[in-house]
Amino acid sequence: MEAAIGVLCLLVLSLVGIGAGFWLMHQRISQLQKRLLEAERRLTHIELAPLPPMPAAASEADAATSSVSPGMETTLPSAPVAPLPSTTPTPLPGSGQPSALLAQPGEAPSPAAQRPQTLPPPTSIPAPPPPAAPARERHTAAATLARAPLIDRFLRMHLLVQIGLVVLLIGVALLLRYAVDQGWLSIELRHLGAAAGGAALGVAGWFAGKKQRGYGLALQGGGLAILYLTTFSAYAIYALLPAPVAFGFFAALSAFGVVLALLQDARLLAYVAMVGAFAAPILAADGGGNYVGLLGYYIVVAVTALTLAVRKGWQGLALLSLPGVYGVGILNSAVSFTPDDYAGTLAFVAAFFALFLAASLLLAQRPGAGRRVLDLVVAVLNPIAALVWLAVIAQTEHDLGYALVAGGVIYLALFGGLHWKRLDTLAVHRELSLFWGIFLLSLAVPIFVEARITASVWAVAGALWVWLSGRRNVAWLIFWGLLTQVVAGVFLAPTLFDALLQAGQAATTYRPFLNEFTSSWLLLALAGLVSAWLLRWLAQREQRPVKNSLLDALVVLTFIWGAVWWFGGGLLEATTLPVTYVASASILFLTLSTVLMDVIGQRLRFPLLTAPLWGLLPALAVLAIVQVGEISSPLQGGAWAVWPLALAAHLWMLRRHDSAKAATPYHAGGVWLLAFLAVAATNGLLGLVDAGITLITAATLTVLAVVAGVATMLVRFLPAPMGPRAALYRLWGAAPVLLVGAVGLVLATLTQDGAMTPLAYIPVLNPLALAAAAVLGVTLVWIVMVRSALDEPVRSLVWGLRWVWWALFIFCLSAELARSIHHLRGMPLTWDGLYTTALFQTSLAVLWSVIALGLMLWGSRRRSRQAWFAGASVLSLTVVKLFLVDLAGVGAVARIVSFIGVGLLILVIAFVAPAPPGKETEKSGDGQ
Questions:
Q1: Fewer CB under 10 Å: which end of the chain, C or N?
Q2: How far apart are CA 125 and CA 104, in angstroms?
Q3: Domain assignment of residue 787, yes or no
Q4: What band does 185 get if pLDDT is binned at 50, 70 and 90?
């Protein structure tokens, strides 16, 4: 067991030594390379005279030297010789000899010190004598080995020292093991021997380091490691030392290692000593003691380590100290913390936090620190570790909240100071302090307030992050800000879910649009919209296409996020009003929101903010249909107030965006919405006075005719944007309205009798007949005006609709005749009643004949064969009716009157309206 422990210790020691040796050699080689490059840069500016002829032996030596690195010789210009500046030779690792490049005149460089580049000696300095042949052969062999990078790396590092130490320690361990087995040495003597061996190894390293620095440091590090392991074995395994004595040994060894590191400027020894110093309380722990002594000891160790890091530039000590201090502190608090220890532990946490914060700032100001990141790592890990420690010792959640507020205030104050100083070396720390200040204050919010307020604060903080990303030119803050807003939305999700469950129910415990939920979704929406605008500003500022495309995508996504919260939250709030006010509140909210966004978008030149205005008309159409189911008249629910405002907003949108191609359907859509609203309002007002179905139907048809008539005849007299687009309003605005009116007229004619209860029925002058006249009249005017403004073939198609109008006209006259006979003579208004009533059939035949006479007379006088044949078609239909209906289904007197009347009309038609010539004298539709 003891042998296994010894071997394990030796393996650990060897691994530590090898790793430390590799790292030290790498650092040393990097320093030498920089110095050599600086010397070469200085030498290239020195003008050298032409070289004198060299002896043959010297030429051979130079040739052997140049074979080390072909192609890297420096050709010097022919110029007067300048004296070389005196340079102190720098020994290479493990050589103890000056560099060949910087060697003094007359000194022969050692083979291990040869560099790949060879400069000819200046003429003012005598050339060195040619080396002997064996030395030249050794030099050539070393140069050949140096060609291999791997071999060269191992030669420059004291790998042999590490291997030798491991082998030596294994041998000594075996010897001691054998002595113990033979009973020669006791456990105490064995530990004393190991300690003496470690001390001797350290002393040997001290003296060896004067000639070979790397070799000596490796021996000293091995000696310290042996002393650490021996002390630990004596205390923890064999209980030869009490805990205080073991702790004293550990502390003394660490202090001695620090002294050795300072005396020799050895960074590796400092690391080994500090590892031992931080491990000492853990290695010597006996389960007793108190936190004050432990943390007080770590204060001293941390101050020492950070002082070395700042004064000597050994930044690794700062990074080594932070997890050591906080790790032990957090572990100790998690295991043995009591409420009575809170104040003292809190003071230690604050002290460590301030210590590492100051160290990170001081490290950043060292020369060359701009190329390092260890100070930033310390600056980032310091508040995180402190927060974890505070979370472990916090007695209540408010304790942690107060600490977060204090930390945020400290960082904001630090940002103010750094911003005032304007030090370039602390630029990153300035931005980092601002981040931590806002982040810690934001993190404290959910501790003191509920989730809805937390969501509001975090949403604002997210927008602030996005603003800071552009203000401070820190790109990663964009994603942090957007992530913060998403987390704010997650915090508001439970409240949003509860609001969705209450949608459609009138609020009783709070006021819609004036509650905490409103402020939450409002701030979330505003944060998203403002962030979208800031991201667009950043995208316009950037010049890289890839970055712009990413920012453009983020702009759209962020705007959608904000718009969804804005409109979704507002409409959700509207559903909590009394049912009659839901649609009106939604209309008012959408109208004001879209108009306000459009105004702000125009001022900020942010096109996305104008986009919601284009969705106003479709939303109003849906809400108009919904509102019809909520209220029965425009006097209810505030409809009389919100709809004029909404229509004015629609006209305002058309005026501001009239030049856009997408505005074309919105002109026509406005006419359709106006017609629907007018019909709904008329029906609602008539419903209040209990008007009959006939009056309501007639009013509906009349309103449709009026709206279509205004869009057809009067729109050209209106100001922009409607007047200049009169043709658009006639063709696409009025046409669908007239089509709905015509279909409604046919349905009303087939289903209603036109009764005027309690008033008596008046033929032709009753409401239904007048409404039909209005629809037919406006339709005829529409056909005439539209076809004059169109080109072929659409013009012929529109003009052909006049025959459909004539058919509808004849149908309406026939229906009015039937309704009049029904109300005046009692004829049943059914198909059987119409068919068997002689008066109706006779009157219908005479009516159709008169219409045919008018058409044929018009066609004959205007020489229009189309009109004449249309009248002939009506006359033919009349004759067919005489033989199929009148001759078979009516009485004798009615049948006689029908045939005589129609016959006389036919004779009159033949005399006054003969068929026009075969070739019409006017073009299609002209004057007709």
A1: N
A2: 10
A3: no
A4: low
